[in-house]
Amino acid sequence: KAGVTQTPRYLIKTRGQQVTLSCSPISGHRSVSWYQQTPGQGLQFLFEYFSETQRNKGNFPGRFSGRQFSNSRSEMNVSTLELGDSALYLCASSSEETQYFGPGTRLLVL
Amino acid sequence: GQNIDQPTEMTATEGAIVQINCTYQTSGFNGLFWYQQHAGEAPTFLSYNVLDGLEEKGRFSSFLSRSKGYSYLLLKELQMKDSASYLCAVRGWGTGGFKTIFGAGTRLFVKA
To answer: What's the gap between Cα A29 and its chain centre?
Structure first.
């Protein structure tokens, strides 16, 4: 079974731009969660989607949004990028409790 | 809310045993996870505990005490490749449903 895939793997943007990241979960998994990881803050929960509905969200500003499609693929969008948004963005899929992570998208905001 | 504490760094010797502790606070506990993360890579799943006791999987074991809000990850016969960050994560009830929260991670250095 193929693992979680994320695209793109690396991205460089400038302040004020917006970005869309994509995640394809493991086949059969309906839940997708997004995390932001920075050296100082560790893994911070962004939101979780299940069957195209946002089931839970963390404490991030409204500039961070996401969605899930009928095939369980998910996207997250960050608008009006700030320097502090530079991070590794990880997507995790799960069928029950255990989450399996994709390789992440490393975003650098200049 | 949910809170997880684990040591920031640990150092151990190749071939030895190391125990990484994790304490947590959460409502609606629904499971505790350990992940391994090598530098520059994504976390990989190691273990899952939902009932009290010890779960053994090869060189790795994980223990859970729900009444104490405590878990540990035990690594035996340490190898150099075990140098990594170990993340403790707890699934609990948050606003809107269950969510999994991660600790900051324990960076383990294995020396020869």
So the answer is: 15
Digitized pLDDT (tens) for each residue of chain A, 110 residues in all: 689 999 999 999 999 999 999 999 999 999 999 999 998 778 999 999 999 999 888 889 999 999 999 999 999 999 999 999 999 999 999 987 789 999 999 999 99
Give the nearest partner residue to B48 out of A56, A97, A102, using CB atoms. Answer: A97
Kindly determine whether residue B94 and residue A56, on different chains, have CB atoms separated by under 8 Å: yes
**Which residues of chain A are within 8 Å of residue B89 when distances are taken between CB atoms?**
43
Q: Are the Cβ atoms of B105 and A42 closer than 8 angstroms?
A: yes
Cβ-based contacts of B101 with chain A (< 8 Å) = 45
Please spell the DSSP secondary structure of A31-84, one letter per residue.
EEEEEEEETTTEEEEEEEEETTEEEEE-S--TTEEEEE-TTS-EEEEE-S--GG
Asked if A43 reaches chain B (Cβ–Cβ under 8 Å), the answer is: yes
